[in-house]
Amino acid sequence: MDRPTSQRPIVHPYRRHTPGTQPEFLYEPYRSTITRSPRKPLIFLPHTLSETTGPVYGHDDVAEADHDLTLQHSGEPLGERIIVSGRVLDSNGRPVPNALVEIWQANAAGRYAHAKDQHPAPLDPNFSGAGRALTDQTGAYHFVTIKPGPYPWLNHYNAWRPAHIHFSIFGRAFLSRLVTQMYFPGDPLFAFDPIFQSVPDEKARQRMISRFDLETTQPQWATGYKFDIVLRGEEATPFET
Ligand SMILES: [Fe+2]
Questions:
Q1: Which of 7, 79, 99, 177 counts the highest number of beta carbons within 10 A?
Q2: Digit-coded pLDDT (tens) for 76-101
Q3: Can 57 be counted among the known catalytic residues?
Q4: For the domain that residue 48 is a member of, what is the CATH number?
Q5: Domain range enclosing 88
Q6: pTM of the predicted protein model
């Protein structure tokens, strides 16, 4: 934000998304978009000072251990221990420090610790499936967790979600919040998943897939995946609808 001689601030709006790089609001194979997608043309509102600068969140109550989903109970959860790390970047590729990154996921058997998930896979008493972290000065975050399993859903016949971790990231302001899903490389369910396929652009879809990273892996302890997140602009990570 600059301040010219008139003392009225100049607001630099965020870049809009490139067409095709975000999911369509209406994607009929993903059935719930049929009832919740807008029926009228969108009205683009100008980005004003309040959207581009605020609010500023206090992060005091994020504890250091919140990033480790394997230490939240008396025993260790079952499954493949993984480290997920990456950086949060803005539309100009600059790191976003102090961004609040929150994740939630199913356990290794593909079951959520949630009353609405009643499919016949075991719950894990040592895994709740939620964590959070703040990015450091380089925009970096990391989590220790368990690789989630795929799970069935009722969208269509024999529907299974590819293994994924849900992410919510707050940048500097409301308009730089991103809610998305991180996938794992080589999942055979990508071709059948209407949530993944609702992003039309192939390159943009690839930005939702983490990459296996041997440097992140720790010997005798955990495999590692990298997942960088771009909040807005042409290289933005796709939102979920
Ligand atoms: Fe999910």
A1: 99
A2: 999 999 999 999 998 888 999 989 99
A3: no
A4: 2.60.130.10
A5: 31-231
A6: 0.88
